[in-house]
Each structure stands twice: as C-alpha cells, then as structure tokens.
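Box 4.2: Ligand-aware structure prediction
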Amino acid sequence: MAELSGLQIFKYLPAAKKEEHSNCKACGFPTCMSFALKLAKNEVEIEKCPYVPDELKGIFSHTMKKAQKEIVLSKKNNLKIGGEEVLFRHDKTFINPTVFCVVIDTDTPYESKLKRILDFEITRINENFKIDAVLLKGSNITFELINKIESKGITAIQELPKDLMKVDEDSFGKNIEKLTLIRRTAIKTKAEEFSNPTYVYLKSQNNLYDLCAKASYYLCKYANMIVFEDFDESMFASLLTLRQNIFTDPQKPLQIEPKVYEFNNPDENALIFLTTNFALTYFSVANELESIDRGAYLIVTPSDGMSVLTAWSAEKFTANIVSKAVKDSNLYDKVKIKRIFIPGLLSDMQNEIQEVVPDFEICISTTEACMMKDFIKKINEQDRENGLY
Ligand code: SF4
C-alpha cells in the first residue's frame, strides 16, 4: 500500500467521525486535520494522539515501515548501507550510496595493493571520494593493519554483516534480474524477506573494462554494496563519478557558492562571463575558462543550484538578480572593456538585462560550454582588430 495522505489519515481521526475529543489539541496541534497533515509528512509520531484507532495504527505501521533495512557499517565513518525507499532516484532520492569495498588477502603479498587503495582519492564537483571499505581476509590481520586502514577514513571490515544478502547467480544477467526483483519487491510490498540490503562479489579478472561495465550496472540496479577483488584507480575514478551522479539528491542539486570566480590572474583586459550556481554548469564553464590564454572573471548568480534554463523558468535567473550580482561583483573598475557575456541559452534576456545593467554592454556567449574556447578566440581577434586588447 502506498503511503497515506493527510486526508486519508484524517478520515480515521475523531474530528472526521464527529466523535468525542474532536480537535481536542492533546496532540499539540490545533485540529485533527493539522495533526493528520503532519503525520502524513512523518513530522510527528502517531502516539502523540491518544485517540488514534487501532485500525489506523495497524495501517500506519505497515505503510511507514522502511522498505529496506539500514545497516551501519561504521559509526566513525558514517558508513551506512541500504535504507532505500524508491526504485528510481527521481521518485524521491536514494539514501545511502552503494558501498565500494576492496578485498585485501593478508595471506598474499598485499602491501603495494593496500598502499594504492589508501592513497587513492579523487575530487568531483567539490566532493572528495575514496574507497569506502576494505574487506580483510586471511590469517595475518593485525590491529596495526586495521588502524592503518581506519586512519585514512576507510572502514576495515573483517566479516560482512549477516543481514547482507549476497546475490550470486551463475550469470551477470541473472544477477541483475535478481537484484532488481529483490529491490522491486522490497519497495512495492515491504516484505520482510526482501528487506535486507544486497551485495555482489566481483572476483578478480583480466578485463578491467568488462569489470567496470558490470560494476556500473550493479551500481545502477541495485546492489547496495559491491565487493571487488581487483583494485584499479581509473576504474574506481569512473565508478565513483557515476555513483555521485546517481546518488545526488535530485531535490538538492549540487551547487557552488554564488560569487565572482577568477581565472588566469585576470587583469584589466579580462573578459567577464556570467552563469548560474549549478555545479555542473560552473565546472563546465570553469574548465573552458582555465584553458584560455586571457584572464577572465565568472560572475555566478544565486540560483538555488539550478541550471541556466531551469533557473530562468523558475524565476531564479531574472534581470534583477543579474543586476544585483553585477553590482556586488565590483568589477566595473577592474576591467577596461565594460562587457559581460551571458549564457547563449538566455539570449532572449539580452535587452531586459541591458536595461538594468546600463554600465556594461550585455553580449551573448555560447549555448554550450564546450564551444567557448573557439568563441573566445574570435572575441580576442575582434578585440585586437579594434585595438582593445
Ligand atoms: Fe485530534 Fe487526536 Fe489531536 Fe485531539 S489529539 S486534536 S483527537 S489528532
């Protein structure tokens, strides 16, 4: 059964049935309806109303039950697994990123593999990622070894939790089928026997491309943990990037601080660009500006992390917001050519922005960041011809 709406809950409460205690406020809310609405959002406990009938308590305990159990692998590292409530991240969000765990067999020469694991770290869109956990095997597990791993913020596991369900069919396709069936049944029915988080164990193999492709699929559908015998930096760079994309909360887009960013030590000849504070937009533009041979400023507007067109349609990128961002940037005295390039996707706003930003000429940049390098080359040529640069 789907979660109850406020109205569905209300039908069970005294006010709906015109019974004694209607809107008695004992729950701390002025009416039964307001209590019902809060309860539907899970913002109050059902026990706060002493007059909830047993029937509603029964329905509630089923509908509010977590579809998947959550297991804490490490309190210190805040490493959790499972607890998922939806099949598709855009239904709401995924909760705990799939855990990547690499096996270290202490009965083999493992030092160089362990060093590479511990040294491995990547940054993607302002977030740092490492391998989450090391699964220790063999007869030479020592406290020193565990401490060495844990000191890097990586969880050392000696035994996988018993509640983890291993999916180990005889083919890749069957594994995917089973993982999907388990997750779908858990979400749709909340059946106890499907509620344990799942993992797959990937044995060592020569073809890392094949391994990376399989792990990517398991990541998408629907392993809570993937245990690898192999370790390869480039493979995990790809997998961690994919994981970041999948486990980003779609309701909270990745965003960066709205302010002026500088590229290539800008001087008076610098160009000025402007965009929103959606992290992916920023990093795409920043990547291009870093590689040009001219200084540049990038004014990033406060747009709740929305991309250019989304921000425009949600009125988070308006002429007034742009005007304020330009004023706050204090760039007027820093550049010789008073000119700001706005995103090509918002070319229709050129006149509107020009009216409220009269001190600068508002020009149109490209629709895609990857076209900026050639675009800037042409701007440089034009500026040289006009004796401006
Ligand atoms: Fe209604 Fe129960 Fe709250 Fe009283 S305590 S107002 S009956 S929800």
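In the box above, the bound molecule is iron/sulfur cluster. Residues 172-189 form the longest helix (18 residues).
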